[in-house]
Structure formats: C-alpha cells, structure tokens
Amino acid sequence: MAAAEHRTLPVPEGLAGERVDAALARMFGLSRTRSAELIAEGHVLVDGAGVGKSHRVLPGSLLEVSLPPVVNPLTVVPEVVEGIKIIHDDDEIVVIDKPVGVAVHPSPGWSGPTVVGHLVGAGFRIATSGASERQGIVQRLDVGTSGVMVIAKSERAYSVLKDAFRQRTVDKTYHALVQGHPDPLEGTVDAPIGRHPKADYKFAVMADGRHSITHYETLEAHRFASLLEIHLETGRTHQIRVHMAALKHPCVGDLTYGADPALARRVGLERQWLHAVRLGFEHPGTGEQVQYDSSYPDDLAHALEVVRGAH
Question: Catalytic site residues?
Fold first, then answer.
C-alpha cells in the first residue's frame, strides 16, 4: 500500500481571507469537492490545528495537507471472505455458494468483499481470460442476491462456459418470494430492460432496452406473498427484480424496486428475497451434464417461515 503524501505551504497574500477549502483547491490544484472531503476526513491542518472547510485563512499561515494514495477501484484485493462456501472444485471450474453482501468482482463505487478477491486470497488459480478485475468470471449475481455460481479456472473452461451462457444452454434456476399472487400463476415475461431514466443505479422495462425473457411458476401461494421458481433465458442486470416489479409483484424486501417496507420489516429482511438455487450446464472438461444446488440462507429461510405462518 502506497504511503500518504504530505505537503505544506504557507498561505500567500493573494489568498488572505479565503475559505480554507478554496485556498486548498487553489494552492494544491485540487477540486473544491476533493478539498472539502480532505478537510472533513481530518487530512488538513492550518498552523497545526484541524479546521472546518469554511475557516478563513490568513497570509503566512502554514497549510498542511495529507493526500491519501488514490486506490484504483478495479484492483483485486486478495481477502478470504467468511461465508463463501465451495460446492465443487476441479481443474476446470470452481462452483461456489455466494452469500449476500459480496460482489462478484471489483467495480467503481464498491469497496466491500468480492468473489474474485476471495478466490485469489484462498489460493485458487483462476482463468486469466477477461478483464483483470473479473478474470474467470462467466456470470454474475447482484451483491444483494445469494446462491450458486460457477467460475472458470482454465482458459478452455472460460471460453466454453462463456459461450454456453451466450447460447443460453445453461439452466439458471432462482427462487423468489414476491408480494401478492402473480396472475397467471405461471407465465413468461418478455420485456426489454434498460437503465432507469431517472436513477442510474436502477433498471426498468424500456422500449429501447435489451431483449430480456423470464419464465416463472408459482410453487407456494400464501396470504401476503408467493414463492416462485424462475428460469432465466437471458441474463440482464437486475432482470428478475425488474420483471417482477413490472408485474406489480416485486420481490419481498426489494425496496429499490417498490417492495413494501412494512412487510420487509415484518419478515426481518434487509434485502430482496431472491436466491440462485440451481445451476446446470455441460462440464467444460468432461462434457457431462452437471448440476449444482444451493439451499436458502438463514435470512431468506426465516422470512419464508414468517410468510408461511401468516394468517
């Protein structure tokens, strides 16, 4: 890890009376926003004392700033992540059970644990194909979605699996607990998905979006919610969540896509009730059809029991 850079300069006459965030920006070539952040984080001293951003500077005062090293958000940090279970491991692939709160790979805006970082930290050799921050990754699960996923260890496995996902020959099965009761009880949602026009962290059904198909069937119907089995034909970001919300049956606990916060509290959920339960594909090494399963984690199992017991 690179050390912080320390710099000290006297305040020139021309900046007398300026706010310290403005003076810092001018003297060190920083943006006003970055200057304010450094002050708020305690990295700026005036004559040896911490100050607020609206403090006015005097000529000759010593302005000290400690500039933390800039961390590339796409750097893979090797870190063994508690809760990631290895379901299967051989020379070609590793199949894991991903817990909630873990991203698949590093990305801007995410500083938490990642699947890629865990595998490197745990000593797994994974394929070098793909961008450096997501080597070996042939599929994704949202940070807030748990369940089974496969990572390629060999270059051959990477190309074979990447192609299988592209050709839609992989059986991706999810269970989702959704609000209310979909009508019909089983069906297909064929609706294009694109970025939400007003919120770039969300997606929505959009006329000019990407082709997206979701098949669902009801496994259990309860007073407040239904447990669905879902098969994805395409694999768009947030696809199940967007399509269920478009049907007016959002995943229980999925506040981003319009779920009822009172119901989420009642069942004790802090994320969407969505779990990747099964993954089936042709093994890239043996050519045999293989299938891997993941059981519900504790938070989802508890929420389902609450819904089952509601009268």
Answer: 142
